[in-house]
Each structure stands twice: as structure tokens, then as C-alpha cells.
């Protein structure tokens, strides 16, 4: 069971939350159309539509029972995120918006993601950056019990997350940072500091309040040799390719 994902739900309705939501959805809109395949899954936070620009024909959102329902027909309600009801090697893309930092067992969630992804499948993860002005304010606010970000989050640094991914043979291909405005509470002041997006990207890129990490599932020893592959296809002309079997299981 997730800790207090509902706290994050309420926070996303605040000015700072709306700021983060806009930035992340715009970035997801840039990343997902170029990832090809048939099956994509977003885990948690249906109020951030990470797959709205994806071209994949089959897209789902996995939501926990504790989260608020949005009446979306694509939403599948799960008991928890530690075990997904998908066959191994059946999905092309999995997106985790702010899920790991609010999870009781983030490592188990990543293991499940690795299990359900096909070889060369993609995962995209977003999180709050501890090494930012927002992260510094959160650390200070803990002493005063007056939090700027959701208080239950255990924020994971990009370097630490990269190490976790490496252990699962997930190769990080890119990490994007954003939301460089200072941690103001009012919409007016956040808007006034919108110029920091371009400045931050250029001058202090790794200190954005939010990061989005892309990774690819690598399978060691998996090589396709042209002539041998052609001979095998000739001998098995009537066989059903394994990828079609996986897709058929997913449809069922």
C-alpha cells in the first residue's frame, strides 16, 4: 500500500503543484510519441496524463484503491503497486510519475516494471529533486512542521535512482530537469519567475525541482544474426512469432 498518495493528489491542486503538472505533461508529450510499440502503462497519479500524446494503441493507467477515481475507462484499480497483473515481457512502455518516492517498497515496484517490460522496452520516471531550492526548503520545513512539498515523500536523488536501475539492467538514456522557479506558494510569484526555466536549463541544469529519467531494459546476450535468423524463419514459416504470442496474452 502506498503511504499518502492522496496528500500528493491535494498538493497537485495548489499553485506549485499545477506548475509541476504543466511542466511534466509538456515533457511527457515530447517524449512518448517517439516510443513505438503496442502496450503502454502509467502507474499512479491519473491527474497527470503522461500518455496523452503516446501513439500506442493500448494504454492503461494503474491506480491504487486508496487514490481518488477519475471515472477514466482506461484506469485499472489495483490492490497495490508491488505486483502488476500483466504477463512478463508484455509491455513496451511504463511511466512512473512520482510513484517511487511515495512507495513502501520502491525496489519491488522497479523489479515488477523490469519483469513486465519487453527487451528494449522503455521506462520513464519522474520525481522531486533533493538537490534543488525546493528540496532545501523541504528539509528546512521539516524542522518547523510546515511543509512545502508533500510531507510523506522520501525523495530519491537521480544518482541513487540511476544505481537502482543499473542493478536491474536498465540503461539510463537521459535525465531531464525542470521547474527552476523558487519555492513560492502563490501563483503570482511563480509566474513572475517563469524566466528561470530557460536560465536554469542553461546555467544550473541539474538543480531543477523536478527530474524525469528515461531508461531502456537491456537483455544481456541477446543478439540477432542476419543469416541465421533468415534460415530459422525459413524452417519455421508456419510458426507464430513470440512477440505476437505476448501481445495475444495481453489482449486476453
Automatic annotation (TrEMBL):
It comes from the Bacteria. It holds the Pfam family Methyltransf_11. Residues 71-125 form the Methyltransferase type domain. This is Methyltransferase type 11 domain-containing protein. It comes from Undibacterium squillarum. InterPro entries: Methyltransf_11 (IPR013216), SAM-dependent_MTases_sf (IPR029063).
Amino acid at each position: 500500500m502506498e503511504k499518502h498518495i492522496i496528500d500528493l493528489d491535494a498538493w497537485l491542486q495548489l499553485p506549485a503543484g499545477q506548475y509541476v503538472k504543466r511542466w511534466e505533461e509538456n515533457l511527457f508529450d515530447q517524449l512518448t510519441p517517439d516510443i513505438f510499440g503496442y502496450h503502454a502503462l502509467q502507474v499512479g497519479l491519473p491527474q497527470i496524463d503522461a500518455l496523452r500524446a503516446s501513439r500506442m494503441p493500448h494504454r492503461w493507467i494503474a491506480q491504487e484503491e486508496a487514490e481518488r477515481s477519475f471515472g477514466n475507462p482506461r484506469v485499472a484499480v489495483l490492490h497495490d503497486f508491488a505486483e502488476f497483473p500483466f504477463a512478463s515481457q508484455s509491455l513496451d512502455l511504463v511511466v512512473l510519475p512520482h510513484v517511487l518516492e511515495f512507495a513502501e517498497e520502491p525496489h519491488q515496484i522497479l523489479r515488477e516494471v523490469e519483469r513486465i517490460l519487453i527487451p528494449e522496452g522503455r521506462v520513464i520516471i519522474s520525481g522531486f529533486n533533493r538537490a534543488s531550492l525546493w528540496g532545501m526548503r523541504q528539509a528546512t520545513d521539516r524542522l518547523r512542521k510546515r511543509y512545502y512539498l508533500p510531507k510523506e515523500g522520501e525523495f530519491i536523488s537521480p544518482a541513487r535512482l540511476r544505481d537502482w536501475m543499473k542493478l536491474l539492467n536498465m540503461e539510463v538514456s537521459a535525465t531531464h530537469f525542470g521547474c527552476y522557479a523558487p519555492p513560492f506558494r502563490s501563483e503570482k510569484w511563480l509566474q513572475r519567475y517563469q524566466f528561470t526555466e530557460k536560465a536554469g536549463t542553461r546555467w544550473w541544469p541539474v538543480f531543477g525541482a523536478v527530474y524525469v529519467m528515461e531508461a531502456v531494459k537491456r537483455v544481456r546476450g541477446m543478439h540477432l544474426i542476419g543469416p541465421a535468423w533468415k534460415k530459422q524463419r525459413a524452417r519455421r514459416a508456419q510458426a507464430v512469432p513470440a512477440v505476437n504470442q505476448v501481445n495475444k496474452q495481453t489482449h486476453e
